Amino acid sequence: MSGTDKALYALVNQVLETLAGLGIVYLATRKFMPLSPDLLRYDFREPFAKPRGWLAWGLLGVLLSPLVVGAAAFAFSLFGFDEVNGKGTVDGVAQILSLDFPSFASLFGVTAVLAPILEETVFRGFLLTSLTKFMPTWAAVIASSVAFGLAHLSTRDLPQLVVLGTLLGFIYVRSRNLLSPMLIHGVWNGTVLTILFLLVQSGVDLKELFSAGCGTSTRSAADLFPVVTPTDRLCNMRSRRPKPISDRQSGQAKRRRSDDAEARPTKRQKKPRPALRGVKGKPLWACSSVVDRQAAFALEKILEAHRTKRRGVSLKSLTLGSNIEAKKATFAVTTESIKYLQIIDAILDRSQILKECSQLARPSAVILVYELLFGEGVRAQGPAERHVLSCKDSLEAALSKELEAHGAEDVSELLPATEESRPRSVRVNTIKVTKEAAISRLQADFGSLEPDGLLDDVLILPSSCALHDHPWVKNGSLILQSKASCMPAQALSPEPGWTVLDCCAAPGNKTTHLAARLGNIGKVIAVDRDPVRFKRLKDNAKLAGATCIQCIQDDFLKLPLDTAQFSSVDAVLLDPSCSGSGTAHNQVDRLLSPTDEVDCGRLESLAAFQEKALRHAFKLPKLKRLVYSTCSSHSIEGEEVIEKVMPLANQLGFHLEGPFPSWHRRGHKQFPDGKLMVRADAKLDRTDGFFLALFSKTDLENGIG
Ligand SMILES: C[S@@+](CC[C@H](N)C(=O)[O-])C[C@H]1O[C@@H](n2cnc3c(N)ncnc32)[C@H](O)[C@@H]1O
Q1: Where are the domains of the chain?
Q2: Is 486 a catalytic residue?
């Protein structure tokens, strides 16, 4: 969920909670109706009447509350209560507050309006009043305040909550009108929320501020914020203040920790993160920084998949998925750690730091050693970090020995050869915005960019541009797609009004591109059999505003293409499952296993499927053009498939057309028709490794036999 979604979710949740809470109070008191006029009273009349004017008491409470609660916080800190760890009531709100005005408005409704209505009705109107039946009023005030504090489920904030509850209780007892405590509670929450919002908007990092101290107690602002909101349960967003990139060592990874607030130490991070699982009865230490923790998890999964040769585990899905925070930083740390893996493994073995400590799992150790020796450094936030820091000398000694053993002067000499970071390519979704509008927006946001020289709707930006969270990417106006992956739709160039069949369509990058090239007029039939990917296909089509796409979840090979149902199809895009050897995921694979071994059995079975799918596509009765593409660098999935199907294609009146004549890289030379095919090389062309062939009907009059 985006931050705005979370805030909206919090609002909806709080509306429901408030309605349910008030309903329960109503049901519980119904049999005593009509209630005495003093009970559960919300009466706006006579705001300043003596002795019970609700507004007079409310305003007095508004003035007193910061003094009373502040004094209490200070007093408790003298007894060391500020050392208590745990989640504070403000935490969830503080995370979401880094966002926009709609989020603020939703949170204001939750904390300054709905929460006070519900909580004052329950704790003062109902509980306090009911308790007075069994105990003196002062005791009922305190007991209901303790209940109020406990209900917030925050040990750290409990004392202040009880003190604030007591003040609210006494004011209520004096005014006998729930509007008074509601006013105090609402002003309190609303003021703190507004201050926090203004601080965040002016670039202040709330966590850093709280850890540095603010006011009488370092815990003050956060801890004096007694709200029960569902946002407390959404405490997983990071603030977005950019952090400068530091270049401490020659081999250091350059990454922007734009949203890694947890990377900085805060007072709240004194306790270790919860253990993931036990080792010999002891809990494992997880990294304290969210980026390092996610990177360690991704590394563990990737190494495991690599060891067991399990497919379908990608670095991108593990580090850039929707559930990942600080995606760019997580991707960078994971990739860089993999790059340094061999040397870090050697350092870990030499230094023996894992032998001394069974609670530090190897993936976490790899990430922390990377951070310590080659990355942005490690702070003593938790036991894992503290252990690695305590071993700094032996780790550095192990690194020196490793360099010495290889006769290397700098660690960069020991790193596997990797390609430079590529420029970012982005496709303008012309269904939603014009290319000109996209250029001026991206120029305003990033400064430099250039239109791709080959592809009509592709823009090239420097590799440093962080586009994942760009609003135009989120609203489907821009689509993050490699240059190579944008070639097929342009090569096919369907004419307006045509029907195009995208046979293996999910997640729909090329499908939405086809729809855009059709000007959203005509039809794209998008087929995919995988249910999870199919959902992404539908979501992406919707996000792109491509209403001409019709999605079919099915096995393409089983579609009756030679029947009337498909007689209107003019063109086909076939981008079948392949080894993906040209893509970034496999480049990481190669880092893990530099001896470029190829799984021949798998390649053969993929090639067999690709050929079968291509032959099947040629059954379409009115087919005019067909593009076959794969993101594979192996000719068995490219040129060889085309060569095998060529006799059938010729027989049906198709020939190979050479798309993109100005593009330099063509099919492998040993294939006679190679020059009519298109290739992209991951390293040399700085995009995905790719293959593409275009068939065109030679004589449209003859039809297909
Ligand atoms: C390389 S991906 C397609 C990528 C897609 N063209 C894009 O640009 O976003 C291959 C897709 O083919 C699908 N697929 C594999 N075999 C299939 C079959 N027999 N029928 C339909 N879809 C199939 C897979 O589920 C996968 O989503």
Answers
A1: 3-234, 261-414, 424-480, 486-588+609-702
A2: no
